[in-house]
Amino acid sequence: MKRLALIASLLTALLSIAHSAGAVETVALPANDHATVSLALRFRAGAVEDPPGKAGLTALTARLMAEGGTKALDSKALLETLFPMATEVHVRTDKELTTFYTTVHQDHLSKMISILTDVVAHPRWDVKEFNRLRDSTVNDVEKRLRQGDDENLGKESLWELLYSGHPYGRLTIGHAADLRAITLEDCKAQAAKVFALDRLTIGLAGGYSKDLPQKLQKALAGLPKSSAAPAAIAPQPAGKPRFRIVEKDTASTAISLGFPWSLAHGSPDFVAMSVARSAFGEHRQFNGRLMQRLREMRGLNYGDYAYIEYFQQDGYDAATAQTGRARHEQVFSIWLRPVQNENRLFALRAALYELKRSLGDEPFSDAEVAATKGFLDGYILLFAQTDERKLGYALDDHFLGTKSFLADWRARLAGVTAADVNAAWRKWIDPAKLQIILVTPNAADVKQSIVSNRPTPMHYQKDAQGKVAPKPKELLATDAQVERFPFGAAGDADVEIVPVEKLFQ
């Protein structure tokens, strides 16, 4: 514990944040002997800045800046210049933040500084690139999200349901009709409005020289100096309806459920809640109750997980979350990966049943908490294995007002008891607040089952002879309880049906 505390204090002391008069804030990790340098230009501006009727404007503007070329290089020349440098300029837009970032070898650092600063300070604003990227984004909404990605369709639908009427309540990449209405002039105006020096934080990590912060400050001097105040982010109360059924002709059903809350990294309960969440359903891990009882014991689907904050996976096969998505308001959510339609409502009931038991009849045990703490103690070390990810967490800390979040989280694990974990879980989790998304066919039948609370038995897989392998009596006894577990819908008005083509329109 003393060693971890010392490491955390050293990291805090070494983390340099410049506040000198007129200077852009800089988050600089201690320079090291690595051959690469990670650079980030993070603006406090995201989808919450999109004007009414123009959902997706900030994300489209940022993408056009990053991919559409600079005054010195058109989009093709930009790619041709970056390719032999073995790097790219990336951009990530979220609800409250937009980050332009790259990692480059020291040999190409001077050239990359010029390119990265030109991307944000001197974009090309090419009309052909604007049309290409706008059409690409519309296609992403209408084709990829609506038609080919039921998992994320469910999760994004849940987000809009939970945050209806809130600044977070619009798809970050935009709605189809809004995107079609956006013009190149809108993008130019949005960039001038939100990508200004008073919203910028520079991030540095890796093998950089002492004069790099000053070079970047000078190169970015051409940005607008000031902007309007960032959008206010208020807490969102739990809402209605409890169920939204997205009607879509699918072979399986994607399920997401959750409610908004204000649990934050700096909360005294965060570490205890992280243990409870991991014991209940860690992303892409097998230790959680959901994974063990829905997938392993019943073979319902590929995976079942729980989250205590917004989570977007960092890469196709990574288990860790993306940085650059820090938010002042958060959610508790459960994600059930697609389930065969005949078992869709049993799977949902099983998750609700397990959640209720964790709050009452089956709290997290001493052994369960000890094993989960041991797992997290090593697992957290995987979250920041590269300079780029270390920098991402440092920038998130800076935005949220926390210090050395990962080191602090890991250091505090040892002192958390099973009593702490269960007390925090009972304090924060309220199943009555859950709102639920199902992406599924035959929505009217599903609604009738939910409203009437009729039993929805588990259908186990049959072998080639049409027989089901014997199951333990204890499991079948539990199934009999699960298939009748209350859905919690107050009536017909608590279950709405939305055709998939109307989502994100």
Characterise the protein shown here.
This protein is α+β, with helices and mostly antiparallel strands. The protein has 2 domains: 205 residues, Cytochrome Bc1 Complex, Chain A, domain 1 (2-Layer Sandwich), CATH 3.30.830; 260 residues, 2-Layer Sandwich (Cytochrome Bc1 Complex, Chain A, domain 1), CATH 3.30.830.10. The protein is built from 18 helices and 12 strands. The strands form 2 sheets. It has a 6-stranded mixed β-sheet with strand order 1-2-6-3-5-4, sandwiched between helices. The protein has a 6-stranded mixed β-sheet with strand order 9-10-8-11-7-12, sandwiched between helices. A hairpin with a 4-residue loop joins strand 4 and strand 5. Helix 10 packs across helix 15 and helix 10 crosses helix 16. The protein is globular, with a radius of gyration of 24 Å.
Brief descriptors of the model:
Cytochrome Bc1 Complex, Chain A, domain 1, 6-stranded mixed beta sheet, 18 helices, 41% helix, globular, disordered N terminus
End-to-end CA span? 52 Å
Q: Tally of extended strands?
A: 12
Strand order of the largest sheet: 1-2-6-3-5-4
What summary fits the major beta sheet? 6 strands, mixed
Q: What is the domain tally?
A: 2
The percent range for helix content is: 40-55%
Secondary structure class reads alpha+beta
Q: What is the assigned CATH homologous superfamily of the largest domain? A: Metalloenzyme, LuxS/M16 peptidase-like
The top level CATH class name of the largest domain:
Alpha Beta
